[in-house]
Amino acid sequence: MEINYYGHSCFLIKVGGKKLLFDPFIRGNELAKEINIDSIEADYILVSHGHEDHTGDLVYLAKKTDATVIASFEITSWLQKQGINKVHPMNVGGNKNFEFGKVSMTYAAHSSSFADGTYAGVASGFVITAEGKSVYYSGDTGLTQEMKLIGEMHAISLALLPIGDNFTMDAKDAATAANFLNCKDVIGLHYDTFGFIVINNQEAINSFANKGVKLTLLKIGETFAA
Ligand code: NI
Ligand code: MN
Within 10 A of 99 (CB to CB), how many other CB atoms are there? Predict the structure, then answer.
């Protein structure tokens, strides 16, 4: 597996010969100016919830890449009204085998609506099981007991978790989440993009180290081998 980071909560996982893009938000991110959105290729786009900082470039990239969008039923219905028909609706607790591996949709403690106010279903996360590994992307969420269950149901080798506080978990809670998940390797997301979520990066790394977990903070555009 290989992970490319595009800033905020947007990244691409190459797995099972396919490219999976998560929560596309690039042109609205001041910090991601060096990313050329038109260079991004995707076979699938996975969307955790409707908020603008996760869907800002969803319609544009779904049309441009002709990827299949995997998201809540409400998000895929919203896309179909805009002429995007390559969609796969899911809901929390559901699993589905795709050509690259298995997707499990997980609970997230967060809200979900589009910028125009349309209800976008419940917020979610994903576990991707492929190539003998399970990677967990929590989406925007607070710390929950459900993460213990996710850790029992899946052998999570890598978790991508929000650490920016204010709208989601902070680094301390995300480190507790990693312990709940039985996962020693975390990539931090959803921090520093805008004023509410600017954090001290070294303190975040220390918060994880205190709980025996390695936190990696990728540079925007950086590639990570998982
Ligand atoms: Ni959100
Ligand atoms: Mn967000």
Answer: 10
Return contacts of 32-38, CB within 8 angstroms, 24+ apart.
32/6, 32/7, 32/8, 32/220, 34/220, 34/221, 35/6, 35/7, 35/220, 35/221, 37/61, 38/64
Residue 100: closest CA among 125, 124, 126, 61: 126
pLDDT at residue 215, as a whole number? 98
How far does residue 110's CA lie from ligand 1's centre (Å)?
Answer: 7
Q: Domain limits at 182?
A: 2-225
The residue type found at 206 is N
Q: Indicate the number of domains in the chain.
A: 1
Q: Using DSSP, state whether 60 is helix, strand or coil.
A: helix
126 pLDDT tier (thresholds 50, 70, 90): very high
CATH assignment of the domain containing 213: 3.60.15.10
Span from the CA of 18 to the centroid of ligand 1 (angstroms): 26
DSSP letters along 120-147, please?
----EEEEEEETTEEEEE--S----THH
Ligand 1 midpoint to CA 51 (Å): 5
What is the pLDDT, as a whole number, of residue 38?
98
Mean pLDDT of 171-193: 98
